[in-house]
Amino acid sequence: MATAAFQHAEAPTGLQTFASDDDRGRLTGAAVKAVLRLADAWGASNAEGAALLGVSESTWDRMKAGSWEGTLGQDQLTRASVLIGLFKGLHLLFANDLADRWPKLENKAPVFDRRSPVQAMIEGGIPRMLETRQYIDALRGGL
Fold this sequence. Notes:
Structural class: mainly alpha
């Protein structure tokens, strides 16, 4: 019975989820704009930006040109959310240009294994992206 109740439970009114078509449509524009800006600030290549967001390079190019009219999926919005939070966390942690250089620097922390955080996040997908964000939050004392 608990399983049946779980399957039919509805989200509280007003709760934003990335599963809702309405929420994804409403959030896509701002998410794409933010990820394009942070990828540029980090000096990420087109291939890196596309991989971080989980889109093809041709889609990334259309996003950069402002000609993409799609809607991000749940996983892509999750990626965007993590990247935006990481960007903010880095700027709270570092009061200089290191905030934007850090994602491309080789890192000896075990979570990165002597790769740059960008490369580690590309290779590890959403789980490594979340670990990277948690790592920065922990350095800031936020955990």
